[in-house]
Amino acid sequence: MTVTGYAAPLTDMRFVLEHVVDIGALAALAGFEHADPATVIGILEEAGRFFAEQLAPLNRVGDVQHSRRNDDGSVTTPEGFAKAYQRYVDAGWPAVPFPPEYGGGGFPWVVAVAMQEVMTAANMAFSLCPLLTQGAIDMLLHYGSEEQRETYLSKMVTGEWTGTMNLTEPQAGSDVGALTTRAVPADDGSWRVTGQKIFITYGEHDLADNIVHLVLARVPDAPPGTKGISCFIVPKVLVAADGSLGPRNAVECVSIEEKMGINASPTCVMAYDGATGFLVGEANQGMRYMFKMMNTARLSVGLEGLSLGERAYQQAVAYAAERRQGQAPGASAGSAIVDHPDVRRMLLTMRAQIEALRCVAYLTAECMDLAARHPDASVREARQELADLLTPISKGWGTDLGVELTSIAVQVHGGMGYVEETGVAQHYRDIRIAPIYEGTNGIQAIDLVGRKLGLRDGAAVTELLDAIAATAAEAIGAGDDLNVIGIALDGAQHALRQATTWLRQASADGRHDDVLAGATPYLRMAGVVAGGWMLARSALAASAIQGEATFTDEFLAQKTVTARFYATQLLPQAAGLLPAVTAGVEDLAAARF
Amino acid sequence: MNVIVCVKQIPDPAQVGSLDPTDNTLKREGKLILDESDSYGVEMALQLVDTAGGGEVGLVSMAPNDEMSGLRTALAMGAAKAVLVSDAELAGSDALTTAKVLAAAASRLGDIDLIIAGTESSDGYTGTVPEQIAEVLGLPSITFAKSVAIDGGTLRVNRQTEAGYDEVTCPLPAVVSVTAGVVEPRYPSFKGIMAAKSKPVEKVTATDLGVTPVGWAGAGQQIVEVAAAPEREAGEIVEDDGDAHLKIVEFLDKLKVI
To answer: What ipTM, to 2 d.p.?
Structure first.
């Protein structure tokens, strides 16, 4: 660990990128030739150093100072944020995964995800600004007109301008269809947008010259609900035909929220008062466009659980090595608490799930890359389905674990963990939003059981289960330490298969309330099993490359230790969740509140 | 304006290093990174070339196993080319041999206006290589530079001293050692990293450079003994009875820091 309290876990990132997912194979695809593993590792090393040295020290500053709204509606970010953002832009990091025609680096999404892991761990509140910009870029790339892309994209890809997503209104949270912001056509082909949006991350700030708001609104005579939602570009500062900045648009930050965490990230109430907007794509298609963007955004939010878990873990390990209390079994004098079995359990529980999360998140991103770039259409389709299945799991399971992992880190610190000075409590507060935003974890679970299990009439999830079973069989066949991992994984896979079959049957029988009742425990179960699957693959890969110089023998041996611990002590949770998945709605319906 | 920077690639100081018990040298088997104390020289060289409005920054480095990670960092910062001397025979080379090797390597990079090095490496700390390079090449040597400017054919250096700094001038070409922390080294940019992939790095051996004998055979020194660093002693606590400031002044005076 460094003085900043965080160093990018480059060795494990590299192991996962090279041996669990396969960035070498991605580099063989047309358009990714420049993304050879050595270059990717080089980028991650330098970006990792930059984020750890420049952003991590600002994490606590941001937590203490908060972003502040001034009387004129402007927002001042904490000390050092504007300079750090400028350096981030100057270094060219925002551009890495985007298309070269808009000034991007054309790297695979899995590389962007790995960079994002580090940036978020260094400073989650800071990372949200680039994250929202990424979502807005993604949307415009897919649905913006040629002219819109030319006007906005290049500046957003460089990070000179940032982006926001304006969905939520006071009465329209998870139920986006209830929104009332209106857009009426103007004579010049643009629109006038009026309404109030809440919870707008980085809706106003002092990091960039312009902010490109993507705003969901209703056009006149739009159908009710989600079918009547349109998406508009509403720039903070209007852009002239030659690309120069013109007058301020009629959009204003009217207040910012006081929150439990991510205090440096301004969460804005935005007022649109006849603001000039430009329709993206076709009217009434906004929800469909949003969903396209949401997959990458949901993966990114899932990643926040990994990032803060990792950062809290590094602090917990360092503290446990330093703090001396009591005498561990067999010790002749006072012990560092890391020597106590229960503390070791906490640390290994963290590490095992962090490594599992990293694999699942990177795998999801790799699926997105293959779905976009693989030359074989059937591979593209299969990978898209797997990405669709894994996305709610990454988001829901990943962010729930984020809360649990940071909580364990507080526990390792004992009373000092509850004291803000150690900084570990901040991670616990910061991550608590992640199970809520970008679709609550309840919504993720409903998405998983309602939409994703039915993909290709259930064949997609069956293929995933078969892939897990195949890894289990491979591990059983590999003998020694791997055998026990394989046996545990196979048992968990059977439980998940049983739960899946039950939900599919309930769905076919029209018992939708039973399906909804089992959604959350099913998502948890799927996450637990996916994690076990990935750690088994890690252990298999580690045993296959034993002796190669890139990784130390100890690093590779620890992969087996971690996977075995997970398989024998955490993975059994999966079977334990089966009764909750298959209980049906009866008790939930009978309960009176 | 062509500036050569001597860059050392060292084991990551964040990892615990270990010594080879057979010869008491630091093990350098794994990945090596750019010595932070050399990143200041790279930054200074880039600024000088920028100010001069032309020319380029070249790098010389001596490292085992064709190790290039640290060189790549310096190339990604903006250096144009490099010579890497990597040769198993070089293991055990002393400071003077290192200086001869680096001097010969620098000569392969064309006309030289200035050679920059850190005052000392972060893993070896002999602190003599820059001056030895100057001697080998017959160039003037200025040490402990805190700022460097070029004025026509003249080098102007503010040279750090215990009391402050000396203003020193000398004709070019020359060898300058720069102290750590005097400039803020830039981070390699994404574009810089991509560009570095195609920058020329010439790999040579000691024999290619005509420097023999090298390694233990050529070393005028050997490491006879290694002792563990003394345990850090408990600090002294000054109770403030109204005269604590005097005790602190006395303490600092004893340390000769004021």
So the answer is: 0.89
